[in-house]
Amino acid sequence: MAGQHTEFDLETQAIRAGQQRTPEGEHSDAIFPTSSFVFDSAAQAAARFAHQEDGNIYSRFTNPTVRTFEQRLAAIEGGERCVAFASGMAAILALAMGLLEQGAHVVCSRSLFGTSILLFQNIMGKFGVETTFVDMTDLDTWEQAIRPETRFLYLETPSNPLTDLSDISALAKMAHTNDCLLVVDNVYCTPVLQQPLALGADLVVHSATKYIDGQGRCVGGAIVGSEQLLNESIYPFLRTAGPTMSPFNAWVFLTGLETLAVRMQAHCNNAMKLAEWLEAHPQVKRVYYPGLKSHPQYELGQTQQTGSGGVLSFDVKGGQSKAWEIIDNTQMLSITANLGDVKTTITHPATTTHGRLTDEERQQAGISDGLVRISVGLEKIEDIKRDLERGLDAA
Ligand SMILES: *Cc1c(COP(=O)(O)O)cnc(C)c1O
After folding, report:
1. Which terminus has fewer CB within 10 Å in the chain: N or C?
2. Distance between CA atoms of 65 and 56, rounded to whole angstroms?
3. How many whole angstroms from 2 Cα to the centroid of ligand 1?
4. How far is the centre of ligand 1, averaged over its atoms, from the C-alpha of 87 (Å)?
């Protein structure tokens, strides 16, 4: 059944693609917790090692459960191939190690997951890779930052926590005109809401830890794209360096993918209702959510995404003390910086995810002291509102 489901829609592929039933006839996906595999003969072992025969060798780089996850994610992301990793950051490291060399240059959106910024700036910087950070919404600054040695443009859209959007099609054209690649971190939307490869991107990066798992259990990551790019640049790094996804985690993520489409729709529905409710609340100055008509890039969101996502932020009157009051008055919501879970999470970016920035950097990034970020889960929306109301309405 592997990879044969291209005639099916995403919802079906998320449930069916990649499954390889064993002779036991199991209905659910099998899990293969084994480090190595045995061969029928010395000749077969030799053929596998020489790449003359496909098949399992060793779970650092070949495992059937991990392969099923890779094939299923590739199918729904619309890519030829996927390689799975131990975490989202391991995937981004593999991307950098696979595509960059000393003297190479990257252009990145400034509004990235903080650890991704550190990886490009500090870790890759140590090896002579230079990264220029630009305003994600301003196409001119991207164009101006590109140099002859630029290997790829890298972005996340929508951004965290302000939900700014980057125009994927326009940046793909720009990348290709300048002989480099476009890489999109698609963690917030997942392929259910946004298909960067169809919009022209060359590679998609995932942290499976977020919506793909969806229930906050395992850490994992993946890269999806063409056979050529994955085979030549990404897979050799995995095989040699070993930031491998475990079969158990792959199995959990497979069950996550089965419900991804319905969960993402439900996250969008809840987030839209919460965004509209917050926008009408007298204590709220501004709500950041691409589904609201007040979002400055509402039109781009409507064409680029098929849903507005599950993450929103809002700015309250009264700054940090009011923001903390709202957070501390919740009884159900989880106070944590994680996102993409069926459980709603609430966080104060200025003192957590963006706490290491200076006051000036924070101001430049638009992270005000009154900003609260919510990853809207799947609890009943009235219960989420009630939990926020206590702090919001307090005198
Ligand atoms: C969490 C996250 C990552 C990193 O993934 P891990 O699985 O935590 O290593 C990368 N990008 C985005 C947008 C994330 O939210």
Report:
1. C
2. 11
3. 28
4. 8
Residue in 54, 62, 71 with CA at minimum distance from that of residue 5? 71
Q: Kindly state if the Cβ of 243 falls inside 6 Å of ligand 1.
A: no
Does the CB atom of residue 89 touch ligand 1 within 6 A? Answer: yes
Helix 319-328 to helix 381-393 angle (10° resolution) is 130
Identity of the amino acid at 203: L
Q: Look at residue 1 and tell me whether its pLDDT is greater than 60.
A: no
CB 201 within 8 A of CB 178: no
Specify the pTM. 0.95
* Terminal Cα distance for the chain, rounded: 60
Q: From CA 128, how far away is CA 104, in angstroms rounded? A: 7
Which residues are CB-neighbours of 343 under 8 A, at least 6 positions away? 216, 334, 377, 379
Q: pLDDT of 243-295, one tens digit each?
A: 999 999 999 999 999 999 999 999 999 999 999 999 999 999 999 999 999 99
For residue 211, give the DSSP letter.
Answer: T
Q: If you measure from the C-alpha of residue 63 to the centroid of ligand 1, how many angstroms do you get, rounded to a whole number? A: 23
Q: Using CA atoms, how far apart are residues 372 and 350, in angstroms rounded to an integer?
A: 9
Which atom of ligand 1 lies nearest, measured to the CA of 220?
7
Compute the distance between CA of residue 174 and CA of residue 155 in angstroms, rounded to an integer: 14
